[in-house]
Write a structure and sequence with these properties.
The complex is a heterodimer. Chain A is α/β, with parallel strands linked by helices. Chain A has twelve helices and twelve strands. The chains are: A alpha/beta, B alpha/beta.
């Protein structure tokens, strides 16, 4: 359904060019969840915003293809693109309070999406809003539509944001850290809700997260990003069973796990390179535990080492 | 063994005015009759969801907020009754590490000046040795001497948290209250800071009160854990016991909600609903509206903390009858 090829998004800042997304490719099929994993600044949110063409100056999409149902989104006019956003592709943001308008009643905010994209009367839009709130598990939705965002808890607000995103039955849902701002018991409820809605609607989902626990529990495919590049791309089962890239292995080793008492954690040494760095070799070079001479010479390509398992590393042959 | 810190019946109420004109006053019981002990050299984890009162507890102990009632004994002295001048020398022994290393450092001060400040305030330095002391501190937390001349914005989140730790260590404290010290950091950096905190604990014989919401991190670093819900401790005990066999349904629910980074784990049992408002907490057991084991007694009578195994207390009427589901991580 979605095929991204060699997408590049650069930011032209006064300190130089930041290659936030530096040529990434992935596909998502209907009903499937692809998790995009990485640390702050690795380019995962810039990727999401690029898919919706929401990158604003000094950022720019400088190359690649975003094929959505066979159509390249990068060639659509702005009015055509507006009919895609919130309609066929919807997005959920991390912080539900900033994604909602604080001075509009939540019923009006959901209706707005429907009135924008569908030929529907205001009364029908209102009824549909109530139904959507009911679907996302908000109790007494008939009263809730008259409330303002500040009257809701964080968990309920995120449910409202999900209801808005689902209003027009999108084929692709982009969820950017949808549960990071929530408590763990509420996070579990939201993850379960997203999973259920996705199955009912056969939506494709791009799930952006830094939490490998959430990846293991809700995605089928996973792409690990580092410094604007995908360094490993595989099914969730393959990635957790046989992680091939040293960065992926480092991430998996550095997290404390419930029920396993270890003496010491094994962190990845060093820190993420500055976004202005121009890499000639592998971007993970400075933090990598097993470097060979070629690593500093050229950046490796993403290669399929086993069926469906791609890795960008000179040593993973 | 006498505890280093003993908190008894600590209470704190915040008053909020509702409505634009601030008409009706409402009382929010943030910390409600809280008691626990902290022993020298141990790490006690304080866990719970947002609004449960864990951060308020930390601030009450250091008197960054004044408690309404209760006692906080540090080495046998009740901190809450000390005058500011008597409190000041004790503050040197009790330091805090904050969650957000971006807002807890003065953006206009060079790191060297930030680190010199605690020495000057507590007057425990001699001028010739000050620079040497600061350099030693930097080395302990894994930074280099050339970092002294830089400003906070030149550092990454992990490095800033190292600076926050160095600042706390400067005055040679006994007790460190760490309020979500790693939750703003990326996973690979989180592990570096956790290791650092464990190393300095051994080296300087520190006692930690570790406030956090990430149960995996807490299990890793803590000897004992206290679980808070709506301003009260509902379960406290050795970390291992709490994670293996929780004696409170809320602890069970928290443990089950943690996503496990291994594909194919059994489905979780979801905790229904949300934390009730602390302005109007439920009668009886505060957890009963969300508890799947609740019985009639839970709606009317509030359970008290009782010791059910050595050092393992739970505030649940059914603690012994229930055989709580084994957590999913087992």
């Amino acid at each position: 359904m979605l095929h991204v090829r060699d997408l590049k998004t650069y930011f032209y800042t006064s300190n130089g060019i930041v290659k936030a997304v530096d040529g990434i490719s992935f596909s998502i099929h209907a009903g499937e969840t692809l998790a995009l994993v990485g640390e702050s600044g690795c380019g995962k949110s810039a990727t999401a915003l690029s898919l919706l063409r929401l990158i604003s100056a000094p950022g720019k999409i400088v190359g690649g293809q975003i094929k959505f149902n066979g159509e390249d989104l990068l060639y659509l006019s702005e009015p055509q693109m507006r009919r895609v956003r919130g309609n066929r592709i919807a997005m959920i943001f991390q912080e539900p309070m900033t994604a909602l308008n604080p001075v509009l009643r939540i019923g009006d905010q959901i209706s707005e999406v429907l009135l924008q994209h569908q030929d529907i009367s205001p009364d029908d839009a209102r009824n549909r809003s109530i139904e959507l709130l009911h679907q996302v598990g908000i109790p007494s939705p008939g009263q809730r539509i008259r409330e303002f965002p500040h009257q809701l808890s964080g968990g309920l607000r995120q449910r409202v944001v999900i209801a808005m995103a689902l209003a027009c039955d999108p084929q692709l849902l982009i969820a950017d850290e949808p549960t990071t701002a929530l408590d763990v018991t509420i996070q579990a409820q939201i993850i379960e809700l997203l999973g259920r809605l996705q199955q009912e609607r056969k939506m494709a989902t791009l799930l952006i997260t830094h939490d490998l626990g959430i990846v293991a529990e809700s995605a089928q495919q996973v792409a690990i990003m580092y410094a604007g590049l995908i360094v490993e791309y595989a099914s969730v089962a393959q990635l957790f069973a046989t992680p091939l890239h040293p960065y992926t292995r480092g991430l998996l080793a550095s997290i404390p796990r419930l029920g396993e008492k270890k003496g010491r954690l094994s962190p990845i040494e060093g820190q993420v390179p500055s976004p202005w760095t121009n890499h000639t070799g592998c971007p993970f070079l400075e933090r990598c535990p097993d470097v060979v001479p070629i690593c500093s010479g050229r950046c490796p390509q993403l290669k399929e080492t086993k069926p469906g398992h791609y890795v960008r590393c000179w040593r993973a042959e | 063994m006498t505890p280093l810190l003993k908190v008894s019946n600590l209470c704190k109420t915040f008053t909020t005015a509702s409505g634009l004109t601030g008409g009706k006053k409402q009382h929010l019981l943030a910390v409600n009759d809280l008691s626990f002990s902290l022993f020298e050299g141990e790490t006690l984890g304080l866990v719970g969801e947002s609004g449960c009162g864990k951060s308020t507890t930390g601030k009450l102990i250091l008197r960054l907020l004044e408690a309404d009632s209760g006692e906080v004994f540090y080495k046998g002295e009740n901190l809450l009754q000390l005058s500011p001048s008597k409190m000041r020398p004790l503050r040197r022994e009790m330091q805090m590490i904050f969650q957000d290393p971006f807002s807890s450092l003065n953006p206009r001060m060079r790191i060297g000046d930030t680190l010199a400040e605690p020495f000057k305030i507590h007057k425990n330095f001699n001028a010739t040795d000050l620079q040497g002391e600061i350099k030693r501190l930097l080395e302990v937390v894994g930074l280099a001497p050339e970092h002294l001349e830089r400003f906070p914005h030149e550092f990454s989140g992990g490095q800033r948290q190292r600076i926050g730790i160095a600042r706390a260590l400067a005055v040679k404290p006994n007790l460190i209250i760490a309020d979500e010290p790693v939750s703003a950091l990326d996973v690979s950096i989180q592990a570096q800071i956790i290791n650092l905190m464990q190393d300095i604990q051994h080296e300087f014989k520190l006692t930690y009160l570790f406030i956090a919401h990430d149960l995996a991190v807490v299990q890793h670093i803590c000897d004992r854990v206290a679980v808070m819900y709506l301003g009260r401790i509902v379960e406290i005990g050795p970390a291992e016991n709490i994670y293996r066999r929780p004696l409170h349904p809320y602890t069970e629910a928290l443990l089950n909600a943690v996503p496990i980074p291994t594909p194919g784990r059994p489905k979780r049992t979801l905790l229904q609903g949300e934390v009730p408002s602390p302005i109007n907490p439920p009668a009886g057991c505060p957890f009963h509206p969300r508890c799947r084991h609740a019985k009639p007694i839970c709606q009317t009578e509030r359970p008290h903390l009782e010791e059910h195994a050595i050092g393992h207390e739970s505030a649940c009427h059914l603690a012994l009858e229930l055989d709580l589901t084994r957590p999913r991580h087992e």
